[in-house]
User: Fold this.
Amino acid sequence: MSEFKNYTVNFGPQHPAAHGVLRLVLELDGETVVRADPHVGLLHRGTEKLAESKPFNQSIGYMDRLDYVSMMCNEHAYVMAIEKLLGITPPKRAEYIRVMFAEITRILNHLMWLASNALDLGGMSVFLYAFREREDLMDCYEAASGARMHAAYFRPGGVYRDLPAQMPQYQPSPFRSQKACDKINTNRQGGLLDFIEDFTKRFPKCIDEYETLLTDNRIWKQRTVGIGAVTQERALALGLTGPMLRSTGYAWDLRKKQPYSVYSELDFKVPVGSAGDCYDRYVVRMAEMRESNKIITQCIKWLKENPGEVMLPDHKITPPKREAMKAEMESLIHHFKLFTEGYCVPEGEVYVATEHPKGEFGVYLISDGANKPYRLKVRPPDFAHLSAMNELIKGHMLADVPALIATLDIVFGDIDR
Amino acid sequence: MTLNDLQQVLSTPEFTKAVLHTVIAQDEMTLVIQADALLEVAKKLHDDFQFEQLVDLAGVDYSTFGDSEWDTTHATSTGFSRGVDASHLKTHVGSRFAVAYQLLSYTHNMRLRLKVFLDDEWPEVESVTPIWPGANWFEREAFDLFGILFRNHPDLRRILTDYGFIGHPFRKDFPLIGNVEMRYDATLNRVVYEGVEIEPRTLVPRVIRHDNRYKEQES
Assistant:
């Protein structure tokens, strides 16, 4: 009789279920995973080193490209770190806009996760539904910042500009008739806030649709229940945060526990799971989308009632208005200095943590008083999650690997940086 | 528990010999501790003060800390060249390498930063993986990018850079554009590595302005 030995399988980096460029070396005993050794770094661009060579503001765009499915949440942490060192607080309206977009981003991220998770486990239709809603949210991004994804919308001292009073509309073209345009423009008659409000009214029904397809689905449960389970103690020790930690039953949410921005004024719940497995993570994230929807509704209400400035008038840090720059010498000087040299940030070090859709996203910023960061360290939540993968997958089958990778919610933009 | 309470607790004799100094700034507390006492202090913080999680671990290279590439104090009496000759730069004194540990206590809802300064030639420190297993990849990252060695680390391999990469890219003396570039050579039918062709350049010089607005905060 021949002797069977463990063998190794190379998974990725060009694998559709690898969520990017993950190379996984799996040691298998039959179909059981004995050891998983993720090789990361294939997308390493040295963002932190690049940031050291640029004035503070020029790195905001790099933050979008870290976790490229939750762009504005990355910006939020970076911008807050600069503001903390500078000792400035943005206007309240800017804070509300930031929180609203942070929650829109959370929905964007969770939709992307849901879509790919379902697709990995064979649910094609959820993918299509989720992308339908993502499209509307992308339009919100575009209307506010001018870019569908890499917004660079949050700036130290506020946000780049106020929300547009008119939502952009579809124009007729050879591919789309006037009648078709009118139909899709019906909820775009008002401003951006009206459009988002309409979205928040529609969205809970959409979540119901996804849940109808998945939550009680027998196949879905067979693929996710009991897979990659982790206990609460182990989750803390391994550095798991966000939905990964909450799925074990620990109601830890930085938005509640260490509130930043205006989260302390908003009403929302922290959904938790109990088993800490793939299914509970799914349930937690679905519930989080509903909570985010609630937060957005509250933000819209506040923003509609409270017009005002969205950027600090301190022109040592924020650019002056374009018209002022053309007319006043002082503004011209400020503008010139700001865009050629930037602003100097006082010496010191801060660590700012935010509740990113994936977990705790932290920015550790050291400044030596220059116009560029001395050292910028980004703490990506999914880096810690992926590092725990070996422990979570041990003893499961090869077919469970995509299920686990998907619920870890990994994106290589911020794992590799 | 507040930061001041924690500072009180940490002023017990067993801590004072390991802690070099404590800084509280921007509502954050930093403990600078002796590198050889790291494991002991970390264990105490974990067991007795419930710092259950190591959130982040960052290597830092302090070798060019405080260096300015642009002269801001002297007027342009010699023309418009304000660039500073790089050979004169060496503002920073003290250890070159540091490791910063961000700890989080879920029980007390509190953060704490530990910092150790390491030897310039042979930066080596004890690994904290026995206390916080989550430190594993973060230590690999600091090793890869800064060349900081972690004693008793279970698996100290490079993590972010390419297989066979030479050097530690986040050190300040490693050029931003790198040392080698890679391309596919059609005649050799394989990928070849060559020295970089592009010249490094600075678009915006590094400027340190001693801004009076922040004077009070600093003192």
Summary: Residues 135-146 of chain B form the longest helix (12 residues). The CA atoms of residues 141 and 159 of chain B lie 6 Å apart. The radius of gyration of chain B is 21 Å.
